[in-house]
Fold this protein.
Amino acid sequence: MAAYAPILLAIVYAMLMYAFSAWRTRRVLDAQSTPLRDPALRRLTDRMAHAMGVDHIPVAIYEIEPVNGLAAPDGRIFLTRGFLNRYRSGEVTAEELASVIAHELGHVALGHTRRRMIDFSGQNAVFVSLVALLLRAIPVIGPLIAVWLANLITTALAARLSRNDEYEADAWASALLLKSGIGTAPQKSLFAKLEHLTGMPMGAVPAWLLSHPRSAERIAAIEANEARWTTPNR
């Protein structure tokens, strides 16, 4: 039974981490967000809501400056204040921000948001297990080896899973944007300017470590989906 103790400890730790992470995320977002009130954006979200067959899409502004969008585990969508400021300065259009909202809705609909939180808890559990096991096998340097292994495994795996999630959410967003009559042009034009908006050139790190695919690759994937969806069956 003692041999299974590290594994059982890791499972309990992962469950506690997930519950704590969900609670902390909800508390931070509630404390630092305000409802979206922009009329033009609300009209676009209403069009997407109608296409989805729901009454409305809950969108709030997360009061931080970095340009980003995110989806909470409870299904709420957030745009950062920095993103909204870029829209108000004319650098981003309302339709482009609508494509961000559609993308985050894709993460919610496809279960990515909840799974990412579970993955984060699991990564911490892997670390705890490795430390416990290697501490027994290699008393002095075991924890150092555990840190190195955990970082290597979880970084590569998380980056790959996240890139797949982004492609899936892009495709889901494209379908919603087409169905709501907005189209994918704003989605593609936003990706074309995203590196400039965020100030983080995608070529600065190896592609296999990127949590998001390169913008050019995302645009190409959207166009490939459109071509496949619009080609008549023969």
Q: What stands out?
A: The beta strands are 33-35, 59-62, 69-71, 77-80. The chain has eight helices and four strands. Residues 2-230 form one domain.
